[in-house]
Fold each of these.
Amino acid sequence: MIHKIFALFFFVSFGVLAQEIPAFQGYVSDYAGLLSPQMQEKLTALLQELEQKTTAQIAILTVQTTQPYDDFQYAVKVFDSWKIGQKGKDNGALFLVATEDRRVRIVTGYGLEGILPDRKVGAILDEFVLPEFREGRFDEGIYKGVWAIALVIAKDAGVELTGEAPVDISRLPEAPSLVALLIALIVIFFIVSFMMRRARRTSRSTIPWWVWMAGMGTGRSSGRGSFGGFGGGFSRGGFGSFGGGRTGGGGAGRGW
């Protein structure tokens, strides 16, 4: 009798600790019940058109909570499981809302990070999503946020989307140009070079500065968090997916 009680306790505890990834339901998976059927239809039509014209894929997921994981960890795991975006292009994005946690996060695939850097994604949330969420208009906030992402992607692809956009993306910060990025990299290179030369003179180290720099490059910035060590806590259900896209954790998250 005791061993049966222990077994029951174990399985119940494991079920609480394991966070099941929601089943893929298409462009819109509204598990928190935030979107009316009409709004789901509007969003689905928009995202279908976007994929047809650009091949990019956006998925929307609403849940009550992401616990025991934070919204970043949870979003990356969902993205990885659903494989949002085309294989080889990695041009997907996930729009996640967790109502009980009061968190919203947009995660982008590798292929969209150039046109949707973290700063621009954060601006989309600040400008279009959070003001609506704070007034309890979750459907409008999601609609405007998704439209903003879709317009950025469509603009980069040189296509137009039908329908009247509820947002003006000209207010968003532009991503830095390739020339600006190149200049910044050159400046950083010379600054680090200068610092390492001074360090070598001071410590008489025999390690070349460029070897030290190469070693630094093997590490991963912690700015976006780490999501490699908690894979065992999720359980996978039987569900479909998108096209095979991947993410490096780019994007932004906010509370309201």
Note: The chain has two domains: 19-174, 178-217.
Amino acid sequence: MGRCLKILLLSRYFPPEIGTAANLFYELAKGLADRGHSVNVVTGFPWYNLKTVPGKYRGRLFMKENMGGVDVTRLAFPVFGPKKIKLAAGHMTAPFSSFLGGLLSERPDVIFIYSPPLFMGLAGWLLNLFRGVPFIMGVQDLHPQCYIDQGVLKSRLMIRVLEGIEKFCYGKSSLITVHSGGNKRHIVEVKGIDEKKVKVLPNWIDTDEMRPLPRDNEFSRRHGLNGKFVVGYAGTLGMSQGLMSVVESARILKERDDIEFFIVGDGIEKEKLVERVREYGLGNVRFLEMQPKSVYPYVVASSDVGLVTLNSRVRTPVVPSKILSLMAAARPVLASMPLDGDAPKLIEKAGCGICIGPEDPESLAEKILFLSDNPGICAEFARRGREFVVREMSLKRAVGELEACITDMLGEA
């Protein structure tokens, strides 16, 4: 490692919030701090996916704390209303609070932002102007393209405005990181950004925290999951996941008393899914709310096979992070998604599971039966997946690669 760097990280989500974005960003921040860098995260006050907000965060607009060696500055504008309104409003206010938090922080050597929301790129640009330091745009999802694909964003004017902001943020950043080659091609070929400016930094998984655990554990016993072949899904129940096809597969397999679908998570589609299960009178599908990060490894361990799904409208080459979690936990992956994305390529390269096309309940049911009847194949998928992430996608490796990118960028500045 070279010199100690002062790194300012900006994120809309951060623990104790529950979710991929919060976990990824905390792991990255802590990984950089563990390597001797001075890390300050600017974020908001937690609420997302929390049953109750810890008392120390309530009724406050600004605070500083330290989490695992990471300095955290929390600043937020009050946002009220139902979850959907708070999410939308937060996308708009988070960049402004991040900018103010960055101004109130010690001048860093570099700024790294997590996008989405897309507007966080504007916070990075403004801090670049006011503090005179380069900013890196860490792109996880291609916004606004994913909203366009799902039919949520239809206004041509709004699409042009958001695509203009997207290209502006890409152009003003000093470096762009993406988690797969397909995302890089999109930014370079579709958005016209210089190829040298875009670096592929695959997502990571803490392979010490997410590790193989016994199938028979306290969580599985508490929820009565032992003695059955459990098809598990843990994550967001959103519009892009196409989870209704999973319910349809459960209907096809409803006579198989030895197979159970266990869906853990929350999202805007959950009510529809629960209602469809109730309509069909299915006894082989159970739902559980989103679980804390500390419980998540046991959720995954309690499944015999892990589901990863995307609907047919997803055209961006996204790689859902739950694939890495399943691999790290040594659980076979059963994915249903567009086959031309980067996720199926990863599953094939790692040899960790099976991938079929999106929203195909019959094929999904067929593959579930195949895996339930072939424990030896499941074990081989599990072994390969674990070995692959330890070798290729560990947190330690990702932090080292980002550190090298930053060092090279600063050396060229």
Note: The mean pLDDT is 93.
Amino acid sequence: MTDTGPDMTEPQGRVLLLANGRGPGRKLWKKLRARCAALVCVDGGADSARKLGDVPDAVLGDFDSASRAARSAFASVEWVRLDDQESSDLDKGLGWVAEKGWQDVSVAGALGREPDHALANIGLLMKYRGVLNVTLHDRRQDLFAIEGCWEWQPAGEMRVSLLPVFGPCTVTSEGLLYPLRGLKLEMGVKDGLSNRACGSRVRIECLGAPLLVCVERGGGGEPVFAPALAK
């Protein structure tokens, strides 16, 4: 194993981080891999990649979770040791891809197994705000943060939740079944749980803190990605 990663100094497109949580289903995995130029596993995520029959471009972490089977299977892959004990493996992974110059990041395996880890991983959307364009994917939903105005053309009817987990915000929407007209959202007071996009173009304007958007694409739908970083 070496301490230098693959040649990713001129990144193009989207990078996929595979964390050590509940892995994505094979249908979603194929869709994500088709849209991502590189695969980076975060420690035990290497075992998920092996089970999915895939080979990462790099494996990151302190390697306390990756099995011997994964280490053997990916012996020719770059293993990048990141020993910072003050940060989670996913946090270190996001920091590493940011240093390499990537902006568009999809993360699988960060939700669905341990609630405390899932909440901490959602919090990383704020830490890397303005640096990375991060989307968290689980088997049924895509999660990302928006600020200002976001427009999206849904592929049919889809459940959408707007959650003010990062702080109070005022939201106005168009194209949702239940429109929000300058509605103040605040956790424990008022949220936008279980709204619906019905196929027409959606426009959401958010003032105040960033807003967490959760799109339920179902088991076979196409993934939805966070909007591009503001230039």
Note: The CA atoms of residues 98 and 132 lie 7 Å apart.
Amino acid sequence: MLRNRKVIISIIIAHLLLFSSFFLLSDLFFWQAFTLSLFLLILYSYRSASWKKVTYNHVLIGVGSGVLLYLIFYIGKQIMLMLFPDMIASLQSLYNLISPKETWHYISLILIIIPGEELFWRGFVQGKMDKTQSTSSILLATVLYASAHIYAGTFLLIVAALLAGFTWGYLYNRTRTMTVPILSHLVFDLMLLVFFPLL
């Protein structure tokens, strides 16, 4: 599955970029570093993604799956707080770091960060692993995507990346167009971080 040297090198590069964003520069320059990291990953991977003409069904699947993911996370947060109330501090610190605050943060989120994550992890990594886009390639790409979130320092983000990453990988596999996972990711992030934050 991961025999391609270019894929392995690209995953290492992505980890280094995200390590810098979340760990080395997080206190002062998270948004600048994260935006630059995803922009570089877009440049590296944009030719690998599959695109089709956007249909009404694509929009419906993208928006619907983004809303459904948000509802799953909302319910999950309620359960988590009942079982592990001490984790609220971890969730709060994560929100403080990744929630957009300035106008350019929103622009970056919509135009660079969300498309960049989908183009790289689904379009490039998942696409290069297995041309048949089997379930095993979706799972491996999901685990690799989640592993790159370890630098945020919270177990909750890794769990979130596993669930959301598998969903977006599955959507990309089924629809064969990058439009659907990007739209789903966009709706999910806007609900989670802008319109209906969980905190």
Note: The chain has eight helices and no strands.
